[in-house]
Design brief:
By secondary structure, the chain is α/β, with parallel strands linked by helices. The protein has three domains: 8-84, Archaeosine Trna-guanine Transglycosylase, Chain: A, domain 4 (Roll); 125-255, Rossmann fold (3-Layer(aba) Sandwich); 263-490. The protein has 15 helices and 23 strands. It has helices at residues 136-153, 176-189, 209-216, 229-232, 235-254, 283-296, 313-317, 323-342, 353-357, 363-370, 403-412, 442-447, 458-461, 466-481, 487-490; strands at residues 8-9, 17-20, 29-30, 35-36, 46-48, 57-60, 63-68, 77-78, 83-84, 109-114, 120-121, 125-130, 159-163, 194-201, 224-228, 258-262, 267-272, 300-303, 379-383, 393-397, 417-422, 435-439, 454-455. It has a seven-stranded parallel β-sheet with strand order 19-20-18-17-21-22-23, sandwiched between helices. A four-stranded antiparallel β-sheet has the order 1-2-5-8, with no helix packed on it. Helix 1 (136-153) runs parallel beside helix 5. The mean pLDDT is 95.
């Protein structure tokens, strides 16, 4: 049978697959493609539009997403049963697509918290950080001891949050793992979304508080205090002492108020999780359009998840402002290839089962959609995990694809707000940086409307232009930066999502 209702999406005229917009039955004639389906095709999955011989390239977005593992006939379902990754040469073409981004003349603003050092926050928390897992319970008890009185007495304080983790000892005091943890703690300790910080240790751990302060030039003061459980006299005394420190901080933190700030003070973490085939068609390019607007306003956007740009890195190196920046990105890609190999894995261990159910077949396909979050402006720099981002514009920070771990690094690098695209439906939330969730499809948005902030599915359903959706996202970013709560904030998420990237032997 045939119908005039759009049933598929063609992303590029050079592609040899198209995407099912809805569930399609066998024998369905796809008008305009001269293709009749040979099997049932779930929504979001791919259909071959021509015969593809075993070993031939499969193209989507006019990019290689894999190779046929057997002969594929026109109308066949193309997925993990007949497509796989292979190595192939990628032309990095460093800096070939660098272009100027004209600044806007009418600068947007938000209401932010300006600190004495000039940094600008979007929230005003007191944070209790831990140097080691051994102090995690005490940190939680301290936060619990003051939280109730805080809400009633100090309305300008967003909360007291204990951010605990599972490492800090049983590790070497040198190497990537130790450096990652120290950069993360340093980044959170100085984050502009915190009005005050208490750092709690046990006392005998590898990750000594004094070592951290000395390494990063951190000085104790009224809004940055430290303590150890061993020196304070055990659990009960530590909870009492820590709660007293927080109570002393509260009046000064409550005195911090919002003032008008330019959009250039927004540093946006770009993230996707629970992706599906629509993520690269709707939510990710719409977020990329919002990033282009933010960069034009002088702001900063951080793309991460290195394993999830694998296969799309050549699109980023072409936008690198110079060859050195492009080569920094490729060095990180090579590191990940070596890292996964020596741990008995491979880069195509990603996508996840949920990604595959949503129509994504290989990491190449997933990465091409994920990279769209970065918009179209120049790649201005590449950073290590948790390294402070000091460059305005679009940048990249190396991280795993595991969302809580990746965002922890982005926040440590300075992100004061998060945009998180999802197709399957992630319920992630973040403290201290609020997280906006962007749904890639209307069905999931409707099903999980209490968790989703924006429905990008209207791009496919209603024909909403990507640029229009990007402008809506940009406006909502500024509203959230000014204090409007996200869905995850309303639900109370963020206390358990602090996950520093742990590398190396646990000893």
């Amino acid at each position: 049978m045939a119908t005039n209702t759009p049933s598929t999406i063609r992303l590029n005229k050079a592609d040899n697959v198209i995407v099912a917009r809805l569930d399609i039955a066998p024998g369905f004639e796809i008008l305009g493609e001269k293709v009749k389906t040979r099997a049932a095709i779930p929504a979001g999955h791919k259909i071959a539009t021509t015969d593809i011989a075993e070993g031939q390239k499969i193209r989507k977005y006019n990019q290689i997403i894999g190779f046929a593992t057997c002969d594929i006939a026109s109308g066949d379902h193309v997925h993990v049963h007949n497509i796989a990754m292979q190595d192939f040469d990628r032309d990095y073409a460093f800096c070939a697509e660098v272009r100027n981004t004209p600044p806007v003349t009418d600068t947007a603003e938000f209401q932010g918290y300006v600190h004495a050092n000039g940094r600008v926050g979007t929230r005003n928390y007191i944070g209790i950080l831990t140097s080691v897992n051994c102090s995690a319970t005490v940190a939680r008890y301290i936060a619990s001891a003051v939280e109730k009185e805080l809400i009633a007495t100090y309305p300008n304080v967003d909360g007291v949050v204990s951010l605990v983790h599972g490492t800090g000892c049983g590790m070497a005091d040198t190497g990537d793992g130790y450096a990652n943890l120290q950069r993360t703690l340093w980044g959170f300790a100085g984050h502009p979304n915190f009005g005050g910080i208490l750092l709690v240790g046990l006392g005998c751990e590898v990750n000594q508080i004094d070592f951290l302060l000395e390494a990063y030039g951190i000085e104790r003061g009224p809004r940055f205090q430290t303590m150890t459980i061993q020196d304070t006299g055990g659990t009960r005394r530590s909870v009492e002492h820590g709660a007293a420190i927080i109570r002393e901080m509260l009046p000064a933190v409550n005195d911090i108020t919002r003032t008008p700030c330019p959009a250039s003070e927004v540093t946006l973490a770009l993230q996707c999780g629970g992706s599906d085939a629509y993520s690269g068609i709707t939510a990710n390019p719409a977020l990329g359009s919002a990033v282009d607007l933010l960069v034009a306003h002088g702001g900063t956007a951080i793309l991460s998840e290195t394993p999830e740009i694998y296969g799309a890195e050549h699109l980023l190196t072409r936008r690198a402002v110079n060859k050195e920046v492009g080569e920094k990105l490729i060095e990180r890609i090579k590191w990940w290839e070596s890292y996964t190999a020596r741990n008995g894995g491979e880069m195509n261990n990603n996508p996840s089962p949920g990604n595959k159910e949503g129509g994504l077949s290989t990491i190449l396909e997933k990465s091409l959609g994920a990279a769209a979050k970065g918009g179209t402006t120049n790649l201005c720099d590449v950073y290590r995990y948790g390294e402070p981002v000091r460059t305005k514009g679009f940048v990249f920070m190396d991280s795993p694809g595991y969302d809580p771990c990746s965002i922890t690094g982005q926040v440590a690098s300075g992100a004061n707000i998060v945009c998180f695209t999802t197709g399957r439906g992630s319920v992630y939330g973040c403290k201290p940086s609020p997280s906006l969730k962007l749904a890639s499809n209307t069905a999931m948005y409707t099903r999980m409307d209490e968790d989703m902030d924006i429905n990008c599915g209207v791009i496919v359903d209603d024909g909403t232009p990507i640029e229009e959706m990007g402008a809506q996202i940009f406006d909502r970013i500024l509203e959230v930066a000014s204090g409007s709560p996200t869905k995850s904030e309303q639900l109370g998420f963020g206390d358990d999502e602090f996950v520093p990237w742990q590398i190396g032997a646990v000893m």
